[in-house]
Amino acid sequence: MECTVRWTGLSGMTFLAETGSGHVVTMDGAPEGGGRDLAPRPMEVVLAGTGGCTAYDVVLILRKSHQDVRGCDVTLKSERAEKDPKVFTKIHFHFTVRGRNLKPNLVERAIKLSHEKYCSASIMLEKTAEMTHSFEIVDDLAEIEPQA
To answer: CB within 8 A of 94, min separation 6: which ones?
Structure first.
């Protein structure tokens, strides 16, 4: 895996990261640090990447468990150290998983497997941050379906 990060110029603190797969992510600093607030902060990108990594795992594991999963959101709330390096010290993951007849034990298992075995990002961050998880299931069967 490879990534190239380039500062966009002399004014401001905007950086472009080009990934090995050819995608570009823009990052910027906070105004008090010389940024112009044009894009997410680099540590926000780390947090977002971690959310993407674990949500991907959860959906994949649920599909392999023959669950009718139709949506997966994860909200991450974090705390960082006061002094440099300002590493993450706490991260809470709250999953909202939507589908039909999802089994709570399989959702819980998918989240656990992601965080203990598959999600490289959360496993790395666990070295400095206390990780907690919660989830809720939204059953699509609760929605009223049109009658013929």
So the answer is: 74, 75, 76, 77, 133, 134, 135, 136
Report how far Cα 63 is from the mean position of its chain's Cα atoms: 19
Closest alpha carbon to 99 in 129, 140, 60, 44? 140
CATH class for the region spanning 42-140: alpha beta
Question: What is the location of CATH 3.30.300.20 in the chain?
Answer: 42-140
Burial class of residue 66 (count of CB atoms within 10 Å of its CB; 0-12, 13-18, 19+): exposed
pLDDT digits 0-9 by tens, 135-146: 999 998 755 555
Cα 83 to Cα 27, 42, 65, 86, 137, distances in angstroms? 22, 17, 43, 6, 38
Tokens standing for residue 143: 């929605």
Q: How many CA atoms lie within 13 A of 48 on its CB side?
A: 9
pLDDT score recorded for residue 95: 98
Q: Across-strand partners of 100?
A: 68
Q: Is residue 132 pLDDT above 80, yes or no?
A: yes
Q: Which of 3-17, 52-66, 106-120 has the lowest mean pLDDT?
A: 3-17
